[in-house]
Amino acid sequence: MWHLIYTSKKSGAVGLSSRSDLTGFSLVRVYQPTEALEVPPKITTDSIIIGGKTYPKDDATNVTTTILEKTARQLHLIPAHPIATIKDRIASTFPGFKHYDQFSPVVTTKENFDDLCFSDDHPGRSVTDTYYLNNKIMLRTHTSAHQLQTLKESDKLLVTADVYRRDEIDASHYPAFHQMEGAQLFDAKTVVADVQKEIKEALAANPASAGIQTTDTTLITPENPKQDCHDEAAMLATADHLKHSLNLMVRRLFSQEKNLQVRWIDAQFPFTSPSWEMEILYQGKWLEVLGCGVIRQDILNNADKPDKIGWAFGLGLERLAMVLYGIPDIRLFWSQDARFLRQFEPSKIQKFKPFSKYSPCIKDISFWVPEGFHENNFCEVVRDVAGDIAETVEMIDKFTHPKTNRQSVCFRINYRSMDRNVTNNEINEIQEKLRTEVVDRMKVELR
Ligand code: PHE
């Protein structure tokens, strides 16, 4: 699955957590790209230095230099970059929304999880899924990390930012990507009439464009319930406004597409209820585009907005850019090859013209694994040793020794550069380094 991991499928765990002991950590709110370049992120023996700030390491620390370097790239702020263009296009369908796009990726676990009602044992918190600077400081895994703060400041807002998750390695997964968050609040007392009026006006201004078919079979059920504190009509009006706004957004974004099919399905997030996902049919497959729902009232109460009701959504920009531009590999967004960025013009969505692919080099590695081995940890070592040259990592064999009960795995790594031809010698060196590093860092035994 892509990018929206906090759903029922992977996690399920929904619940209120109220850990107030994690306060006291201030956030570098505004992250100046220039400042970041002047002070490049650095890992020393006992601390992590990023955005000019120093964070002490502890036993949770798992960020790597490769990942920290990504935090300085700020693709969503580079003019003509597809990520920036899609961001602007989406923002233009939400006029009057305050748009925050300069937040530092360094947040507290309180902001990323606790404030959003993640349970203490939610799998998203795990060190195998999330990059920690230390126990309490991490790289945000989603733009929702800024919900509480921004909801205090505005009733209509967008947040665009780079987010980080430890993940598999293939054409559609990358440990750094970009999300856009949106939220809108209404007066709980007048929401029904307000929404009716707004939708009527919006429909008059933007008659639904032809060629896009929307299916919605979602239901409010005990599995995807209305919050007890909400009036039913108010919740339904909020949900209507949410779906209407997002249908309009994709209609506009895909105005060129002849037969776009969109569907709504039920979902679960710790910070919204009810919750939904929007999917689009692309090349015969349903792609998850965004997650959304009615904001949990505890969050609005904490934002000092107890009399409001509202919706929020979060979407992955890479996925939309890949579909709209026809970009086949997620690593291309990070390519520094002029043949990539040079193709694009600001504000214009255009089909990507592939430039020649360089030849791949395939290597296998097999080892006995200790208990608690996690594939993401292996992928992390690969990323660290090989960088973007690692195109895919695939487990091609796994077996348990019948006598000793020990488990052995074999991974196939496909090395290929986006920018040049790699030589066998160079890859052999990387593979050798990888063999040493996995033994050192993961306590595996090579076969
Ligand atoms: N933050 C969620 C994710 O990354 C998406 C989301 C945002 C869902 C806002 C609901 C509301 O998976």
TrEMBL record:
<dbReference type="InterPro" id="IPR036690">
    <property type="entry name" value="Fdx_antiC-bd_sf"/>
</dbReference>
<feature type="domain" description="Aminoacyl-transfer RNA synthetases class-II family profile">
    <location>
        <begin position="84"/>
        <end position="346"/>
    </location>
</feature>
<dbReference type="InterPro" id="IPR004530">
    <property type="entry name" value="Phe-tRNA-synth_IIc_mito"/>
</dbReference>
<dbReference type="GO" id="GO:0006432">
    <property type="term" value="P:phenylalanyl-tRNA aminoacylation"/>
</dbReference>
<keyword id="KW-0030">Aminoacyl-tRNA synthetase</keyword>
<keyword id="KW-0648">Protein biosynthesis</keyword>
<protein>
    <recommendedName>
        <fullName>Phenylalanine--tRNA ligase, mitochondrial</fullName>
        <ecNumber>6.1.1.20</ecNumber>
    </recommendedName>
</protein>
<dbReference type="InterPro" id="IPR002319">
    <property type="entry name" value="Phenylalanyl-tRNA_Synthase"/>
</dbReference>
<keyword id="KW-0496">Mitochondrion</keyword>
<feature type="domain" description="FDX-ACB">
    <location>
        <begin position="356"/>
        <end position="447"/>
    </location>
</feature>
<dbReference type="InterPro" id="IPR005121">
    <property type="entry name" value="Fdx_antiC-bd"/>
</dbReference>
<dbReference type="InterPro" id="IPR045864">
    <property type="entry name" value="aa-tRNA-synth_II/BPL/LPL"/>
</dbReference>
<dbReference type="GO" id="GO:0000049">
    <property type="term" value="F:tRNA binding"/>
</dbReference>
<keyword id="KW-0436">Ligase</keyword>
<dbReference type="GO" id="GO:0004826">
    <property type="term" value="F:phenylalanine-tRNA ligase activity"/>
</dbReference>
<comment type="similarity">
    <text>Belongs to the class-II aminoacyl-tRNA synthetase family.</text>
</comment>
<keyword id="KW-0809">Transit peptide</keyword>
<dbReference type="GO" id="GO:0005524">
    <property type="term" value="F:ATP binding"/>
</dbReference>
<keyword id="KW-0547">Nucleotide-binding</keyword>
<comment type="function">
    <text>Is responsible for the charging of tRNA(Phe) with phenylalanine in mitochondrial translation.</text>
</comment>
<dbReference type="InterPro" id="IPR006195">
    <property type="entry name" value="aa-tRNA-synth_II"/>
</dbReference>
<keyword id="KW-0067">ATP-binding</keyword>
<dbReference type="GO" id="GO:0005759">
    <property type="term" value="C:mitochondrial matrix"/>
</dbReference>
<dbReference type="Pfam" id="PF01409">
    <property type="entry name" value="tRNA-synt_2d"/>
</dbReference>
<dbReference type="Pfam" id="PF03147">
    <property type="entry name" value="FDX-ACB"/>
</dbReference>
